[in-house]
Design brief:
The complex is a heterodimer of chains A (about 160) and B (about 425). Chain A has seven helices and four strands, in the order H-H-H-H-E-H-H-E-E-E-H. With about 160 residues, chain A is of the alpha+beta class. Classes of the chains: A alpha+beta (about 160), B alpha/beta (about 425). The interface between A and B is large, with 44 and 57 residues.
Chain lengths: ~160, ~425
């Protein structure tokens, strides 16, 4: 339980309180999101175990969730993780070229992390921003109407943002 | 084309409506106040009479669904389906980001009518911004006494909590959503029993889409007759449509059900890009069968599109111009469905995967004679054979794309697959030469 500081415990308790007594398992997704954020974008075995212990669940119940839902990553991601939409509405507007430009600019393939640890990207299914396609999402920001050129400039902008 | 008065989107350019006071100034929470003075059954009857069709995709009458809720002294739940993810669909996100109190008012009215004291808003995990905005609005609604132990000073108690998803299309299916809310992987459950009798934690549960609930205050305010007059027969009210793909002005629009697909594309969205013509259009999200340019004089309501052999679904219009390779478009969607199948039912887990593998073989220039018919054969073994409709959602478009553009599929197999999604010639490496 070493990962769960008193502050985190208070936060987790507030999440669990949203659900009826005996249904604490419902909190597993929100708690894993919080853990993943604390872990810098991915979940280690230790993170998952901490959530399992906190909710009194067997590890298998947590693992079932972390392997089913695409937002959870068991592999390290870049400090800035880019989700590029690949589904039809974005593809019709040129997302294939955007992804190629992105991959070339970063010098990594999907799921890989740049050498400086700053960026990773993956192709995701529909982000429900289809009118803005092609889109990519970084954290809570959605960038739309992308072209290969604007994607390269976006990386330049994000690189500056990433520096301390 | 008659201009449509705006209800659902009337506050989209009024940022003040994000706050409680701003929403009240725009006429908000009047419907809730009125509803609290009505008999619960009166409200259910009004929503039934208003022909409010479920906005999540199925178009099932919301009032009828409400009528199925099991009677019990124990807990009952309302779960708001805010897991928007049907490719092409953009409506619940903006409804939450621009007018969260409208949804909260709908929730409160629905819960009062149904005797429900606890509501979860299952919000798509990637919707960080909408989550933040809705959470703020919920917090303010508690502070102002719209939620909590005495809703607007009445004896009615209501608690609302947000629950983020984890990134899985299947959780937009109502029983998959409930599994996910219970902290499990999003496996849909066999129906019956329907959630209205045995849903969240085994208790009677109503699952309603965001847009469905956002309509409810307007039905209370306008009355069933005026609400019906905005729509078409058995399709009450106005509707959110999102148009994307190869049109001049992609975007989401609130308009009447009586609008035709042609008017939506050419009048509302400014038509095709210069020099381009329409090749095909998906009218209701990627799971709906495709329509040819000759089939677009159809009204955008649930029943008219049903008669046209497709569906209104989530009212997400995906427009494809003459450059588009229909074979590659289908291939893109088959990747989607094979990726999003939860894997519970064999016909779907294997069927979506096989369809994608064969499609990949075709687009990679290795298609074999009989492959296109093999895809149709697989579809026939998927439709109606699974717990939920994801298998149908993959098979029905596949059947329609192949049926309506068969020559293009056959030519693609013969040609060895050198056409990209946007009609560009792709020279293949000589590996198979």
């Amino acid at each position: 339980m070493s990962l769960i500081t008193p502050e985190l415990k208070a936060r987790f308790d507030a999440v669990v309180a949203r659900y009826p007594k005996g249904q604490e398992q419902s909190a597993v997704i929100p708690l894993l999101h919080a853990m993943q954020e604390l872990g810098g974008g991915h979940l280690t075995q230790e993170h998952q175990q901490a959530v399992a212990d906190f909710l009194n669940l067997p590890m298998s119940k947590v693992h079932e969730v972390t392997t089913f839902y695409t937002m959870f990553s068991l592999k390290p991601r870049g400090r800035q993780h880019l989700s590029v939409c690949r589904t039809l509405p974005c593809a019709l507007c040129g997302s294939e070229d955007v992804t190629k430009a992105l991959s070339a600019r970063l010098g990594v393939g999907p799921g890989e992390v740049t050498a400086d640890g700053e960026f990773s990207y993956e192709e995701v299914e529909c982000l429900a921003q289809c009118h803005l396609g092609p889109v990519l999402q970084v954290g809570d920001t959605v960038y739309g109407d992308l072209t290969p050129d604007s994607t390269r400039s976006l990386i330049d902008t994000l690189s500056k943002k990433g520096r301390p | 084309m008659e201009a449509c008065p705006l209800y659902l989107t009337k506050n989209f350019k009024n940022p003040a409506a994000l706050t409680f006071d701003g929403y009240v100034a725009s006429g908000g929470y009047v419907a809730l106040k009125k509803a609290l003075s009505m008999q619960p059954q009166e409200i259910i009857d009004l929503v039934k009479a208003g022909n409010l069709r479920g906005r999540g995709g199925a178009g099932f009458p919301a009032g009828v669904k409400w009528g199925f809720l099991g009677k019990t002294e124990g807990p009952k739940y309302l779960c708001v389906n805010a897991d928007e993810g049907e490719p092409g669909t953009v409506k619940d996100g903006p409804l939450m980001e621009f007018d969260p109190h409208q949804m909260i008012e709908g929730i409160a009215i629905a819960c009062f009518a149904l005797g429900i004291k606890w509501c979860y808003i299952y919000i798509r995990g990637e919707f960080y911004k909408a989550h933040r905005i809705v959470q703020k609005a919920v917090d303010e609604a508690y502070a102002k006494g719209v939620l909590g132990p005495k809703v607007m000073g009445s004896g009615f108690q209501l608690d609302v909590a947000l629950h983020p998803g984890g990134g899985a299309y299947i959780c937009g299916e109502e029983t998959g959503l409930l599994s996910s809310l219970e902290g499990k992987k999003g496996f849909p459950k066999l129906k019956p029993p329907f959630p209205a009798l045995k849903g969240l934690y085994g208790a009677p549960t109503i699952v309603n889409n965001v847009e469905t609930l956002a309509c409810v205050p307007h039905i209370i305010n306008l009355g069933a007759e005026a609400w019906n007059a905005l729509g078409t027969e058995k399709n009450g009210g106005t509707k959110m449509y999102n148009v994307c793909g190869h049109v001049m002005k992609p975007g989401y629009y609130e308009t009447r059900h009586s609008i035709t697909l042609r008017e939506l594309i050419y009048d509302v969205c400014g038509g095709m890009k210069p020099g381009r013509t329409l090749k095909g259009v998906v009218p209701g999200g990627s799971s709906s069968p495709i329509l040819l340019p000759s089939e677009i004089d159809v009204r955008m309501d649930f029943d008219s599109l049903g008669k046209a052999g497709t569906m209104l679904g989530s009212a997400a219009v995906i427009v494809m111009d003459d450059r588009t390779s229909i074979v590659r478009a289908l291939d893109n969607l088959l990747h989607f469905y094979s990726h999003e199948s939860c894997g519970q039912c064999t016909p779907c887990r294997e069927g979506t995967h096989w369809l994608y593998l064969i499609s990949q073989r075709i687009v990679n220039g290795e298609g074999k004679a009989g492959d296109v018919d093999r895809m149709l054969d697989i579809c026939n073994n998927m439709v109606g054979n699974t717990i939920c409709v994801l298998a149908d959602a993959a098979a029905l478009p596949t059947q329609s794309y192949i049926k309506k553009y068969r020559a293009e599929f056959d030519a693609y197999v013969l040609d060895g697959g050198r056409v990209g999604l946007l009609g560009n010639r792709e020279e293949k490496a000589a590996a198979h030469a």
